[in-house]
Specification:
Layout lengths: L10 H12 L15 E7 L5 E8 L5 E6 L3 H18 L3 E6 L6 E2 L2 E11 L4 E8 L4 E7 L9 H11 L9 H6 L3 H4 L3
Antiparallel strand pairs: 1-2, 2-3, 4-6, 5-6, 6-7, 7-8
Helix pairs in contact: 1-2
Length: 187
């Protein structure tokens, strides 16, 4: 088999592999939680090569076809990118703890919220929101389950690569000194 298609040309094998990889972070993910408007295929192209193809099915019956010019790893990343928001949204927050940051502003942008969240179906995420007087944004970082199998110090090393310290994030010191965070995360 080729590098791009190490498991043959049955798209279902690749969808299963992509879901397995997604479960490293979103362990509660099931096929039923995935976006229904996307379907995939592996199709032979005019030049005789094979390619991953995505189909987006609109509510009005229109279908958009997109040839994904990627290898196996690219297909897995695409699949996760398309589905992570929906799968994350299916696991609501049940409990939170705010983490105070030592540095909250950069220019006119300020960190508004830095929160660690525990979810109903299990798992944890970090929610970060920053903005200024006219704009803003937020992002949720789901924490892979494997991080919780590490000792606290190693957990922090991995976590800070996922959510790096900076003007709108907290530092290692902030996390170590925040009352209750270590216990909230189960350490």
């Amino acid at each position: 088999m080729s590098k791009n298609f190490p498991y043959g040309y049955d798209i279902n094998v690749y969808l299963d592999k992509a879901l397995e990889r997604m479960k490293e972070t979103f362990f509660w993910a099931t096929k039923e939680m995935l976006r229904k408007e996307y379907t995939y295929a592996i199709e032979k192209q005019e030049d005789g090569s094979y390619a991953y193809v995505s189909y987006y099915h609109w509510d009005n019956g229109k279908v958009d076809r997109n040839v994904l010019n990627c290898d196996y790893e690219g297909f897995v990343r695409h699949f996760i990118d398309v589905n992570e928001w929906t799968v994350g949204d299916r696991n609501p927050v049940k409990e939170t703890i705010d983490v105070p940051a030592s540095c909250t502003c950069s220019g006119d942008w300020c960190l508004e919220i830095y929160r660690i969240q525990k979810h109903v179906l299990g798992g944890y995420s970090a929610f970060v929101q920053a903005g200024n007087r006219s704009a803003g944004g937020s992002r949720t970082f789901f924490i892979p389950q494997a991080y919780f199998e590490l000792p606290w110090e190693e957990f922090l090393d991995k976590y800070l690569k996922l959510v790096p310290p900076g003007p709108f994030y907290v530092s290692r010191e902030d996390l170590e000194n925040a009352p209750g965070v270590k216990e909230f995360l189960g350490f």
